[in-house]
Write a structure and sequence with these properties.
Length: about 230
Amino acid sequence: MKILIVEDEPKTGDYLRQGLREAGFTVDLATTGPDGLHLALHADPDLVILDVMLPGMDGWQVLRAIRTGGKTMPVLFLTARDQVDDRVKGLEMGADDYLVKPFSFAELLARVRTILRRGRSGTEATSLQVADLELDLLRRRVSRAGKRIDLTAKEFGLLELLMRRQGEVLPRSLIASQVWDMNFDSDTNVIEVAMRRLRAKVDDSFEPRLIQTVRGMGYVLEVPEPA
């Protein structure tokens, strides 16, 4: 699942991004209100973690614009303000939860998982399926043909990206930025190694093979057409 963090404090933003990625989520980070609004409207996150005090637009304005734009993804407010009126205002404007700084990461992670479990207006899918390959987004489990497959956090994130964009050839640069949060380095084989390990787990013992290499372009997950 993809989470958007809108937070202008560099240490807090980096801390949350790292922690949520280690928990298996795909994470985008914006440091201004306008940038956060753009990503909320166009990157289709499953959850927005939104600071109230932001440059350019405050959190209230960002949330109002998100809802005006027809987006229904859940929003978790973060703020240093410990005022009842602020909490009520956020909830009345369409926020799903409210967390006051300072907070423990364990508490934030628990809130995130609870919100995601409820889903987007009760309609957000909590699993992905391609052929007999199933990915449970909430329990972080993968199975194929009914057989449980154990993946690392990076392998899970890589498979989720491939399944969400089924049939689309994903270049190595996109995979590097989305799963590893790094610029693609042609001298490293980290993506090839991870893809090889993922294939060994989800493809090698099953038919048909779903993960394909498109030479010179990248990788795609799709059900092959019958010969």
